[in-house]
Amino acid sequence: MIRVALLILSLCCTLSHAELLVTQATVRLLPPGVPNTAAYFTIENNSQHAEFLVGAKANFVAKAEIHNHIHHNGMMKMQQQSEVKIEAGQTLHFAPGGLHIMLFGLKQPLSENQVLDLSVQTKSGKNIRFKADVKSPSIHKHHH
Ligand SMILES: [Cu+2]
How distant is the alpha carbon of residue 63 from its chain centre? Predict the structure, then answer.
């Protein structure tokens, strides 16, 4: 009886306190025929230690990479990131003009409000799966 109660208790708390929590995930909707797009989200590190994002996956594209925008000779350029550090307790925003998941080679056209499955991988071996809504870009533009 006690063991069952403990099991339920531990299950509930594991689920409600995800160590790495992804929220507000979106994939940018681009005009038909544009093969590449990007995903944005907020990620919270609720653990007691730093985590490193080392990769991304999405089965609706040929390839997904973690990118950031850097200033180079007065120009904005995108660069693939081999790892992105998230400090313990830190919330990191993947947003237009900064960090993003670059999505190369869409396998099928996207439509507004479609829900897509994505995941990010950490150096510690975690695979964090999340859902992203397809949204038209609003105020900010993301140049490629
Ligand atoms: Cu990019």
Answer: 14
Domains in the chain with CATH codes: 19-135 (2.60.40.1890)
Give the tens place of pLDDT for each residue, 101-117.
999 999 999 999 999 99
Q: Ligand 1 centroid vs 102 CA: distance in angstroms? A: 4
Q: How far is CA 82 from CA 69, 85, 96, 110, 122, in A?
A: 14, 10, 19, 28, 11
Q: Which residues, at least 6 apart from 7, have a Cβ–Cβ distance to it below 8 Å? A: none
Q: How far is the CA of 18 from the centre of ligand 1 (A)?
A: 27
Cα(35)–Cα(89) distance, rounded to whole angstroms?
A: 36
- Tally Cβ neighbours within 10 Å of residue 34: 13
- CB-based contact 53:122 (threshold 8 Å): yes
- What is the pTM assigned to this prediction? 0.83
